[in-house]
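Kindly inspect what follows.
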Amino acid sequence: MAYSIEVKQLKPFPVAEFEVKVSGKTQTTHTVLVEENYFKKLTDGKITAEKLVHLSFEFLLDREPNTSILRRFDLREIMHYFPEYETEIVKMF
């Protein structure tokens, strides 16, 4: 299934907050928190935080439908469900 992902930053670092709207068969809205240190660890500043969140949703949507993704979570939590997240996300940029 093809999804459309829209990411909007609501709050800046040190703990950035994003609203993510995913359109597919069913539209869902998610709130994602990203700690600045975690962002730097994953990206080394090579991409924006918005792009990281977008790619993280692409990663999740390859593994589960948008209706199964938590409505509010910290980006670090992805590792609890998908241990390969950090390794795979850096390959996406």
